[in-house]
Amino acid sequence: MLTEINFDGIIGPSHNYAGLSRGNIASASHAGDVSQPRAAALQGIEKMRHNLTLGLPQGFFMPLDRPDAPWLETLGTTPEDAEGHLRAQAWSASSMWAANAATVSPAPDSADGKCHLTAANLVTMPHRSHEWPGTLAQLRLAFADPAFAVHAPIPAPFGDEGAANHMRLCDGHDGQGVEIFVYGVGGGRFPARQHLDASKAVARLHRLAPARTLFIRQSDTAIQGGAFHNDVVAVANEHVLFAHETAFEDRDAAHAEIRAAFPQVEIVEVPANAVSLPDAIKSYLFNAQLVSLPDGGGMGLVLPTEAQATPAVWNWLQGMIAGNGPIRRLLPVDVRQSMANGGGPACLRLRVVADPRTVDPRFIADEAKLDRIAGVVAKHWPEAIVPGDLASAALASDVRKARNALLAELGLNELN
């Protein structure tokens, strides 16, 4: 039976605040801060546990090997000798944001009846551009069943940042849907990371029907305001699109195109005069998991606690819940360590509609497995990392040992 499974990235032991993500306001504003990898990973595990308690299927992905010495070797250097900015890029734990791992099209949408996954190339940002080989290896392991087709990344220079710029509308997760690819156009102080050509290539690889595939431009206002991915200003689930008024370049045309392709859509729009774009970005209101709750519970919004701390956001949400709309519950979670580096609850997860029996069970979470993961993290993850620590060979060795301990605990040594 097809169901939506959220795969969260386990926050890796090299989690640090180097401020590498241009256009990501949170990342830039916390550059140089002391990070807490152990607390970060435990927060992520508790978020997964929270969603399991809601009755939602949950999976996870492993951290990648860091620092990435083979990548530095291609640049003629080593973790010990690299210039500071290159060393920081090699240490990045940004694969924790699994929404950027791949774009996923469920089997009901594809002409061949397979669930298609295309690993994102992430070429716009140097610190993320070397993630894809490790990500692709993991996707091919987790989704090795013939029910899936796993594709290598779109080649450079066509920037593809994965599911963070992709939405799907449907009557139910197991039914045929309309897929929406949101792209940006460059020209401002911050780069547009998702290219139209990349989105179109993914749609072709996934064998999507043109009549049920939309390409919509993200607004320059949103990108230059700090919404570096579409999921910072919009999220969809089943028949609901939850978006900020400034999400799309031509709002009226975008809404009309969506309604024409999927007439059942219910657009829940937050007006800019109620919640400003800066408040929406600061709180990551839209970087929430909009989920279908089991047993007819309607939809819930798994959102960061920062939304509670932003008065305009929380007041608007309280008013929405008091109405009779499709979103019935607000479900705050603490992911502060991830938020400080520029990623909320939705960044941490990749949505895959599949029969759980077709997924490698080592990647599927339950309470006991999360306990085991938390035990490894508590024992092996560094408590804190300051920027100067990235030059430490001893810390690099400890970080690798920590990841290897988790792989061994879960029987995933082939990812070494």
Can you walk through the features of this model?
It is a single chain. This protein is an alpha/beta fold and about 425 residues long. Helix 2 packs antiparallel against helix 13 and helix 13 runs antiparallel to helix 14. The two termini are about 30 Å apart. The model has no long low-confidence stretch (mean pLDDT about 95).
Keywords:
32% helix, three-stranded mixed beta sheet, 14 helices, alpha/beta, 416 residues, globular
The ordered H/E elements are EHHEHHEEHHEEEHEHEEHEHEEHEHEHH
The secondary-structure class comes to alpha/beta
Mean pLDDT: 95
Helix-residue proportion: 25-40%
Give the helix/strand layout:
Elements: E1 3-9, H1 25-29, H2 37-53, E2 58-61, H3 69-74, H4 84-91, E3 102-105, E4 115-119, H5 126-129, H6 132-142, E5 148-151, E6 166-170, E7 177-183, H7 196-205, E8 213-217, H8 220-225, E9 234-237, E10 240-244, H9 251-261, E11 266-270, H10 277-283, E12 289-292, E13 299-304, H11 311-322, E14 327-333, H12 336-340, E15 349-354, H13 367-380, H14 393-409
Parallel strand pairs: 1-2, 4-5, 7-8, 10-11, 13-14
Antiparallel strand pairs: 1-15, 3-4, 6-7, 9-10, 12-13
Helix pairs in contact: 2-13, 13-14
